[in-house]
Amino acid sequence: MAEPPACIDGWSAGYVDLTGQALRDHQGPTELPVSLALNDTAMGTLLATPDVLEPLALGHAFSEGWIQHRSQVTDIRLSRLRHGLAVRLEVPPSVVRQAEPHRRVETSVSSCGACGANEEAQLFSGLKRLGPQPALAASVIESAVARLASMRCPGLHVAVGVSEQGDLLSCGHDIGRHNALDRVIGHSLDSGIWPAAIVISSRCSVELVQKTVHAGIATLVTLAVPSRLALEVARACDLNLVCANRGHQLELLSGQLP
Fold it and tell me: Per DSSP, which regions of the chain are E strands?
């Protein structure tokens, strides 16, 4: 039997041995529990990148149906917890009552932003027919995909919102793809300027379609083939769903050609 290769400069059997590396020297992304509350009512906890949390909290509250308008949030307060962070949205008491059915009462370690819902109906809350709208020109989408690639960060998803002309309107980075999308929605709520399309560096599952439709954005572009359920919902809602599968030719799977 051949002798195993000797370890040379940290290499052994095809591996770089970093098992002894201190955590402080690890270059991966940061991930912490982020607990969201409306006033004193805990609404749910996300595993998220703990940077610039205000847009994330706003976007998540809107896309989950907790709030209907930016004006309902009078203040946003951040605080530290033992193991993570807390974001408190100050809202009128009536908003808390209306949001109560949307509370995420179960803990989930899944990366799916829809996990932990009380009922199946919650997974499809906010869905509506957008009305047929032509997709953006292929050249605009291709330019947006190229810009997305230039904004990638190791270990993080990125979502960008672009205008009909392809101008960059907003950007969100997060370890969770649904959180990155919520960040773009939160920026839009704050600025009042909504993108014509969102491009996101991930596969397309149904909660991304749900969030995009709830925000009234006509076009969603992802870098991987969507799930069958995501495509079914996109077609039912008139969403332009585009697959830019790792730089290959654009595929319009739902919606109208430009």
Answer: 11-12, 15-16, 32-38, 41-48, 75-80, 85-90, 157-162, 168-174, 197-200, 219-222, 240-243, 251-254
Which contiguous run of DSSP H or E holds residue 186?
Answer: helix 177-191
Top-level class of domain 138-254 = alpha beta
pLDDT of residue 14: 62
Around Cβ 62, how many Cβ atoms within 10 Å? 24
d(CA 102, CA 147) in angstroms, rounded, equals 35
Give the C-alpha separation, 142 to 159, whole Å: 15
Distance CA 64, CA 114 (A): 9
Whats the size of the chain, residue-wise? Answer: 258
The DSSP result for 114-172, as a single string, is TTT-SSHHHHTTT-------BPPPHHHHHHHHHHHHHT--TT-EEEEEE-TT--EEEEE
Q: Show the tokens assigned to 162.
A: 């672009």
CA 3 to mean position of chain CA atoms: 49
* CATH number of the structural domain 32-105: 3.10.20.10
Q: Is pTM beyond 0.85 here?
A: no
3-state secondary structure of 71: helix
Min mean pLDDT across 19-28, 50-59, 236-245 is at: 19-28
- Judge whether residue 241 has pLDDT over 60: yes
The SS3 assignment for 88 reads: strand
Domain ranges (residues) in the chain:
32-105, 138-254
Average pLDDT over the chain, rounded to whole?
Answer: 84
Contact of 175 with 44, CB cutoff 8 Å:
no
User: Is the fold of 32-105 the same as that of 138-254?
Assistant: no
